[in-house]
Amino acid sequence: MRAIKRFSQGLAFNSTFTWSKSLFLGAESDAGGLAESNNVFDRNTNKYLSVHDRPFIWTIAASYTTPRLGTSRLLSSALRDWNYGVFLTYSSGFPLRAPTAQNNPPLQNLIFQPTFANRVPGQPLFLKDLNCHCFDPQKEFVLNPAAWEDPPAGQFGTSAAYYGDYRQQRRPRESMSLGRTFRFTESAGLEIRVEFTNIFNRSVVGNPDSDNYKATRTYVPNGNTAGGFGRINALSSPTGTATATLVNLSPRTGTLIARFTF
């Protein structure tokens, strides 16, 4: 769905809402080159959600130019022609990949082909809601290892690579700008503009360790997590094609620009 309003009383915007489902069949790979196929001997079992699947995406790009205000020439000259712009994106999180099975001996050692752990029915996937901002990412584990189990020895797992209810943190993008061009003559002018990224200074944490659901939980002396399934490295940023190219990873920043043209 798309809504467009062109310049009217200084306002213009272009907003889109997408409701979609992205499926993939085959050995889809992410930016790290990791094959997401489960059973290379049964191609049809490799049809599942794409690593890039996001069911809901809403974006809005809007601008507003202030009009002449009142009858005061001085006030109107100071406040008119300022352009305020926003670019906002809100969406579902990208999927987390199912853990790798930890059979002994691993299937990888037998046929050079890993497989996924099986999902346990009725077990919650998360110990903490990644979007609630109600836990300490340095001290708490967020994934539930009891939600996964190994397939029988020598067999491929039955899990899909990705599930719709097993996703990364939602990470909005919010940028705003304010600027004006002061015209002195037909050919000479001064442009002043300030631009902000991550304007609301939202906190963004890295993705939890999610490959080995049997990984032992460890801590450092101050109580922070050091390793284990569901651990978040609070010093790292999200990585991978599905996040790094689409998410503003930095704290709030602002840039002031002044340019004189003649």
3D structure, described in words:
The strands form four sheets. The protein has a seven-stranded antiparallel beta sheet with strand order 1-2-5-6-9-10-13, with no helix packed on it. The chain has a two-stranded antiparallel sheet with strand order 3-4. The protein is 6% helix and 30% strand. By secondary structure, it is mainly beta. It starts with a strand and ends with a strand. The protein has three helices and 13 strands, in the order βββββαβαββββββαβ. The longest helix is centred in the N-terminal third of the chain and has 7 residues, at 73-79. It has one domain (21-54, 92-261). Strand 11 and strand 12 (225-227) form a beta hairpin. The protein has helices at residues 73-79, 107-111, 241-244, and strands at 2-8, 11-19, 23-25, 47-49, 56-65, 83-91, 118-119, 148-149, 173-183, 189-197, 218-219, 225-227, 253-261.
Helix-residue proportion: under 10%
SSE sequence, one letter per element? EEEEEHEHEEEEEEHE
Indicate how many domains the architecture comprises: 1
Distance between the termini: 43 Å
Number of helices: 3
Work out the radius of gyration: 25 Å
- Decide which structural class fits the backbone: mainly beta
